[in-house]
Amino acid sequence: MSYEYVVLKEISKKFAGGVKALDKVTIEIRTGEVLALLGENGAGKSTLVKILYGVYSADEGTIYINEKRVDISSPAEAIRHGIVMVSQHPQLIDTLSVAENLALGLKAFNAFTSIKKVSKFISEKSGKFGVKIDPWEKVWRLTYTQKQLVEMIRAMLLNARVVLLDEALTYLPLEEKRKFYKFIKEFTAKGGSAVIITHKIPEALEAADRIAILRRGRLVGIIEGGSARIDDVRKMMFGESAAEITYGKLQASQPGEEAVIETQDLWITGDFGENAVRGVSLRVREGEVVGIAGIVGNGQRELTQALAGLRKVSRGRILIGGRDVTNRGVRVVREMGVGYIPDSPLAFGISIDNSMTENIAALYQRKSMLVNWSEVREVASSLIEAYKIMIPDAGSLIKVLSGGNIMKVIVSKEINYCRRALIAHNPTRALDEVSAIMVRKSIKERAISDGVAVLLVSEDLDEIYQVSDSIYVMNSGKLYGPFPPDEAERSNVEHLMVI
Amino acid sequence: MGLEQYAVNTLVELAPVFATFYLVALGHSLFEKAGLLDLAIDGVFFMGSSIAVRAAVASGSPVVGTVVTAIAVMFLGIALAFLMTSLPISHGAIGLSMMFLGYGIGIIVGYPARLEVGSIAMYAYSEGESMAIMAISIAIGVAVHIILKYTKLGASIRACGENPHAAASLGVNVLLTRLIAGAAGFAIMGAGSSFFTLAWQKFWDPKSYTLGYGWLAFTVALTSGRHPMILVPISLIFGGLTFYRVKIGVMYGVEKDVANLVPFIAALIAMLVCYATKLKNILAPPTSLGKVYYREERTV
Ligand SMILES: Nc1ncnc2c1ncn2[C@@H]1O[C@H](COP(=O)(O)OP(=O)(O)O)[C@@H](O)[C@H]1O
Ligand SMILES: [Mg+2]
């Protein structure tokens, strides 16, 4: 029978800077259930699961496990109680091998156990879960999906009874996501519990037995998965703003004649020496939004990095505003007024150890030796207001923001910065629905009223259809298209993505 | 004198120099592998070499001198590891303060011993023990290497150096791991510094802290990428340069003060070579070396 394995009682948490992240939240986790935790960016979802995993400690409130009051002051302790967290950014040590990473938490091995022994254990066990991982492989050589897989295996090896998935599936390609959901179902069927945090409400409705909704640090309600209606969930999550959510096509632009972004027979080498981009030719005209659909890992990342000047092109040309910028480097491209929202936002989009103003200054104030701080502060506060960024003030360090709010800072500063062109790779990933729609609208707005040429690369077909004036599909380094969105059938596009 | 004999003599002569540089650099490397920046090294080096003299004179045995130094310095390592891990303050600031503290303690501890006995030669290791000192030093190095590379404890130490937040999230007790690395690393440094006075110089001078040999050991560790085995040849080279610099000076007819610079110039060249070439990827420092680790900070 299912019973309440974990009870979080009246949990409150306030951060330095006065942010009340959680306010008397009471919630239980039952055995054998999938519990979805929903809420807008900054609602307190991550804070809640981190308290349960011992990363943060609560100011007030108690945690019960199997009806016993426990004190979880570190992840090691949480693991002892069978609680394991997997987050959006893999928490693995890159320079260590898979086995070394997994060994760190395994209590079955003592300090002087050889890694060889651990490797053997991992090989045997992971075989049982039906996955193949090489325990000797260094983590930095793994793809994102493989890393998340290692994290899941880790939870299983630790004999987890509760897995906390904090947007752990957000960045996975669709196909992989389905496999992970299947894995989770099997896990809960055997009596385990899963808490999943996601911004995709339909996904949550499909997978979850119960749905808990947080809003500004408070628990708004818990509803049974079967009876939940998407509109009700949205209302609970966003209140009034839920009305802004729409997936209808945004107003079309009237593109000019001139190509602003143009590539001619572009060939780019990937990280492992393969031809990641093969002969791509595309044109984005003034004021036009061109969408590139495709499953992750088909050359999109290499293409956008090359356009931004971050990656060498082995053959072909890139023209921006008619000027040849092939292999001229990122500075030249940026100074021509090109905004860039990268695929790995934390690696290329922002410095989290600096403040919002410092990040803006680094991008905007390149002309003179001295930074005009009052101008920078003005830009910052206008962005904070326009994008409803939850930040104590513009001088706060980026790393204290919630994941979605970090993304908002990156996206808003680029949309605001671009004068001529914007290269946007998954610009709304990790954003809640209301914020995502707002971002799409402002991208479109810049295209229509300022003639900015936008190249939007996204795994999210809804997004591609909502904003694009013209659609390409990228598969195995090749580009198919352009197709006008009204004529391009979704099923055809999906087919092109997977053939 | 045959070539063989010459080589043996050279090695015996160099053994204490090697052991000093090797162990100090090794202990320092172990400490830094855990992500703890060690700017205290030169102060610790001088302090250790003074404690060694005092303990050897008091007990009449150089071995006691070495053991007492290792233990005393170990406590300093534990204190440093604790402060650097549990407080949100700069590793650099704590390290440099400890360096000056080390100079001060070194003088206070060493001076009475010097007043008591004119020469410490009779409390020092004998020439015949040099090779054993060298062998033991290398054995310690091999042990550190095996632990770092092949055991769970080693993986934990490296994890704390690369990304302590992720390490904690993976189930590592970051504080405990760093206390272990701090204790073991500084104990080894302590032992190394005792060989400076008790086996190499056989002489204690209050001004020897101006020599900067602690910083040379720092460079040895840096050049070797903090790798216990690469440290062996590099310590030998730097030890040799330091020891024979006067001879080298005479050979090429340069001034004594300039000759004194030889090891430092070599250090500079070594660092340039390291950082200008692909070697820098192989010998890269731990990613989180010297970064403040404060648990409430968002990273996960
Ligand atoms: N370490 C921290 N320091 C300061 N503020 C924080 C920290 N972690 C989270 N916050 C704040 O707490 C609030 C909730 O954040 P979080 O739980 O990450 O939201 P989300 O629901 O998007 O996961 C946000 O306003 C965020 O800025
Ligand atoms: Mg979050």
Q: What does the model show?
A:
- The complex is a heterodimer of chains A (499) and B (300).
- Chain A has two domains: 4-243, Rossmann fold; 259-498, Rossmann fold (3-Layer(aba) Sandwich).
- Helix content of chain A is 34%, strand content 25%.
- Chain A is built from 17 helices and 20 strands.
- Chain A has helices at 45-52, 75-80, 98-103, 115-128, 144-157, 174-189, 201-207, 230-238, 300-307, 330-335, 345-349, 356-364, 373-386, 403-417, 433-450, 461-467, 490-498, and strands spanning 4-14, 20-30, 34-38, 60-65, 68-70, 83-87, 162-166, 193-197, 210-215, 218-224, 259-269, 275-285, 289-293, 315-320, 323-324, 338-341, 421-425, 453-458, 470-475, 478-483.
- In chain A, a hairpin with a 2-residue loop joins strand 19 and strand 20 (478-483).
- In chain A, helix 12 packs across helix 13 (373-386) and helix 14 (403-417) runs parallel beside helix 15 (433-450).
- The radius of gyration of chain A is 23 Å and the shape is globular.
- The model of chain A has no long low-confidence stretch (mean pLDDT 91).
- Chain B has one domain: ABC transporter involved in vitamin B12 uptake, BtuC (Orthogonal Bundle), CATH 1.10.3470.
- The longest helix of chain B is centred in the first third of the chain and has 31 residues, at 3-33.
- The mean pLDDT of chain B is 90.
- Magnesium ion binds at residues 45-46, 166, 402-403 of chain A.
* Strand percent estimate of chain B: under 5%
Mean pLDDT of chain A: 91
CATH uppermost class of chain B: Mainly Alpha
Count of distinct strands of chain B: 0
Give the number of domains of chain B: 1
Report the CATH superfamily of the largest domain in chain A: P-loop containing nucleotide triphosphate hydrolases
CATH topology of chain B, which one? ABC transporter involved in vitamin B12 uptake, BtuC
What is the number of helical segments of chain A per DSSP (H or I, 4+ residues)? 17
What amount of the residues of chain A lies in strands?
25-35%
Query: Averaged pLDDT of chain B, please?
Result: 90
Percent range of helical residues of chain B: over 70%
Order of SSEs of chain B: HHHHHHHHHHHHH
Instruction: Give the structural class of chain B.
Output: mainly alpha
Q: Over all CA atoms, what is the radius of gyration of chain A?
A: 23 Å
Decide which structural class fits the backbone of chain A: alpha/beta
Number of continuous helical runs of chain B: 13
Uncertain spans of chain B: none
Please give the CATH architecture of chain B.
Orthogonal Bundle
Strand order of the largest sheet of chain A: 6-7-8-3-9-10
CATH architecture of the largest domain in chain A: 3-Layer(aba) Sandwich
Ligands bound to this protein structure: adenosine-5'-diphosphate, magnesium ion
